[in-house]
Structures are given as C-alpha cells and as structure tokens.
Amino acid sequence: GFLASGRIDDRRVWTSAAGAYADQVAEHALGLLLAGVRGLVAAASQQDWRPDAVAPRVTGLAGTTVAVVGAGGIGRRIVELLVGHRVSVIAVNRSGRQVPAAESTVPASRVGEIWDRVDHVVLAAPATDATRRLIDASVLARLKPTSWVVNIARGSLIDTAALLDAVTDGRIAGAGLDVTDPEPLPPEHPLWTTPGILITPHTANPGPLARRSLAERIRQNVARFASGQDLLGRIDPAAGY
Q: Which residue intervals of 16-86 are DSSP H helices?
C-alpha cells in the first residue's frame, strides 16, 4: 500500500522492520507445524479420549524435509529452529545465495522445482505480485497426503479455495495459518470449521513483543545512521519490499 500510494520513493532511503520480529514469529511457525505433525490439531478438535482417532495423524518432524519459502530475517530464524529438530531444510530466497544451516537454497525463480521434494512448507515470503497465490491447486497437488502448510507471512500467498479443497479431500494433512485471505476471517468462513486447519488470529507477533522488538530495531538503525553504517531492513522500491 505504501508503494502503491507513492509514499515510498527512490529519493530517500527507507527501512522496514524486516527481520526485527524474527524470534517470536519463527517460534510461532514452529508451534503451528508441530501442532500439525504431532496430531495436536486433531486432538484439540475431538476433545475426548479416542487415541486411535489421533494416532494415525501423528507423523513427527524429525527426519523430514521442510521448505522455508522466504528466507529473510524471519525465514532464516525458522531454518535455525527446524535444523535443531533434525529437519532438512530447503530455503527459498530471491537471490539463491546459500542460507546458513539450510541443506540447500534455491532462488525464488526456481521455486517450482521443490514441491515434490518436501514433506512440509512454511511460508515467510513478502506479499508481492510474484507471490500472490504462490500455493495454488497445482502446488498442493504435488505435496504429500501427510504434508502441512504453515503460513506466517500474508494470506495472499495461498489460494484459500484450493487449500480448503486439498485439506477436505485429504490430499494434504492440514494447514496452520496465522494469516488468511480474507483477513480478518469472517465468522462464517469454512476455514474455521474444516478439520485439519488450525488458525491463530495474526498473533505470531503480539503487541508487547512487537513494540519491544521495533524499539530495538529503531535504536540500532539510529546508531547505524549516526555512524555511517548500512541500515537494517533497507527497502528496495523496485522489488516491492
């Protein structure tokens, strides 16, 4: 919106909070993924003592391969947390430069090559024209029946109707969503009542933690500006973020 309105121009240097909230958002992403693969979503929805109904849904995280799409500040922290759980990570970023700790890194232009190689997907990419409905019916068809899709980025990265169909039909195991399309999600929307979908109301970066992290980012950038250093979170108006 800022770019579309012309407020962000190329005459000045602009920065964002990109990466400032990495710890809390990465923890949330890991929590959503663990809730899926450990069967917590199914257990919470049934709320009675039927272990046989939950056990088939437990696949575990160790030994799997996870795609982290959008390996910026938040994405890199997600990679670190996943590797600590003995997960192999395929990172996707704009440049294709190797992300530390990831098993491999591919540029965003080649993201279509990875879907058959992964067990789960975590979305941490910015919302741009290029990422709109990145996860659509064709991508979901290439994932596994045990796959979970986690989105802590923006709702526009997922085709909501296609996701509903894939989860309802059992073509993927489920989705953990901190963001949705539309957002806020209307009370009558089928995402709320579809088994296998866990929704948190855009709370990966709650207010008190966000303010503390933003204040620290501002402190760092003021110090960097005063000393002539490169600023953190510099925006590229041409790229859109």
A: 22-37, 40-46, 51-54, 73-83
Low-confidence spans in the chain with pLDDT less than 50 = none
90-125, pLDDT tens digit by residue?
999 999 999 999 999 999 999 999 999 999 999 999
The DSSP code for 10 is S
Given the residues 28, 76, 77, 154, select the one marked as catalytic.
154
Q: How many angstroms separate the CA atoms of 106 and 91, rounded?
A: 6
- pLDDT computed for residue 238 by the predictor: 83
Is 85 an annotated catalytic residue?
Answer: no
Residue of 132, 171, 202, 224 marked active site: 202
Residue 188 bears catalytic tag:
no
90 in helix, strand or coil? strand
The active-site residue out of 80, 183, 189, 224 is 183
* CA separation for the pair 67, 148 (Å, rounded): 11
- Is 202 among the catalytic positions? yes
pLDDT at 160: 98
Are 14 and 235 in contact by the 8 Å Cβ rule? The answer is yes
* CA end-to-end span of the chain: 11
Residue in 1, 25, 16 with CA at minimum distance from that of residue 179: 25
pTM (predicted TM-score) = 0.89
